[in-house]
Amino acid sequence: MKKWIKRMLLFLLLAFVFISILPYFFTVKTVDSTNEKPFIESRFQTIGTTGIHYRSYLPLIDKAKGKIIMVHGLGGSTFSWRNNVQQLQDAGYLVVTVDLPGFGYSDKRPGIDHSQEARSELLWSLLDTIDLSLAADTRKLDWTLVGHSMGGGTVSAMAMNRSEDTEKLVLVSGALFDNNPSTVPNLIYYAPIERAIDVVYSHVILTNKRINSFLSSAYGRNPSKKEIDGYLNGLKLSESPSFIPDFLKTTKSKPLEKLQKNKVPILFLTGENDTWVPQEQYKKLKERIPRTKVNVIKGAAHCSMETHPKEFNSLLLDFIEEKD
Questions:
Q1: Whole-structure pTM over 0.85, yes or no?
Q2: Residue 207 φ/ψ, nearest 5 degrees
Q3: d(CA 274, CA 76)
Q4: What is the pLDDT of residues 229-287, one digit of tens each?
Q5: How confident is the model over 298-323, as pLDDT tens digits?
Q6: Residue 3 pLDDT > 70
Q7: What is the greatest pairwise CA distance in the chain?
Q8: CB 68, CB 147: distance < 8 Å
Q9: pLDDT tens column, 103-146
Q10: What does pLDDT average to over the chain?
Q11: What gap in Å lies between CA 151 and CA 292, rounded to an integer?
């Protein structure tokens, strides 16, 4: 009996050692993060210790009618808003699109808090910095906050934290509920598991086939090569260990109580065929906050701003320019 126990313990020890070293037999695909300007409009700003990439678009008139920040969803980046900024510029708005930490060309290092509360503080600090560079009459304008899916939770937190600086809130298929990071075990911080996560992410998730499948579901149609490449470029890791364990552990929504109490106008824009954020989400939001206006774009799925830009831009501008 004792011999059997010893053999079992030896087997478990050998299995543990094997599992611990196995991830290091595989490379983690990373890209050089020293590209200072991936796009003509690119800007970089360090907030605290976190590097943020954003793109700034000045209005095509002398005096800005308003200021808009657009925040992408899970897997997205500033690329997600490529079909929208031009029309907003043409209409006279200053537009900022931003990469959240872990996405696009923003910081992807470990140790970042990915909760919506932390993102809110980070982005308001970014906007405060941007405001310092603007003319006085533009600086005094409040910001319209636009967020897609996961980014909808970010801009909701922003509107709750600084309603006095928020002109309007636009939730594009906003994911606002049911997010509990406490279910993720601390074991993900064990170095071999961190390595295994990065290996699986870079070799299994970041493939044309996976991104094609991801976008086909989100778009409700087959994506083009340009669209696949646009998402792939924004998802590549710049270092390992990466941000992923912290993202899984710290991602957390902010309760909407303060949004119920303030008076910020809210629009929920969604696609009629969206299977990622079902109708129950905006119905629940409408029930809690009756002032929420809902527009459903016919034929669109989860990424209506990309697949149906004409309808999306028209509804967005109508809401922004609507007098309270």
A1: yes
A2: -125, 155
A3: 17
A4: 999 999 987 777 789 989 988 988 888 888 888 999 999 999 999 999 988 888 889 99
A5: 999 999 999 999 999 999 999 999 88
A6: no
A7: 86
A8: no
A9: 999 999 999 999 999 999 999 999 999 999 999 999 999 999 99
A10: 89
A11: 17
Confidence of residue 34 (pLDDT cuts 50, 70, 90): low
- CA distances 125 to 6, 33, 190, 203, 226, Å, are 58, 23, 33, 35, 33
| Beta strands per DSSP E along the chain | 42-47, 50-57, 66-71, 93-98, 143-148, 166-172, 266-271, 293-297
For 171, the token pair is 């939730």
DSSP state of 100: P
- According to DSSP, the β-strands at 50-57 and 42-47 are antiparallel
| Those residues with Cβ within 8 angstroms of residue 310's Cβ, 6 or more apart along the chain or in another chain | none
Read off φ and ψ for residue 224, nearest 5 degrees: -85, 170
Residue whose C-alpha is closest to residue 65's, from 168, 163, 152: 168
Rounded CA-CA distance 210/225 in Å is 13
Phi, psi of 166 (to 5 degrees): -105, 120
- Outline where DSSP puts E strands in 5-140: 42-47, 50-57, 66-71, 93-98
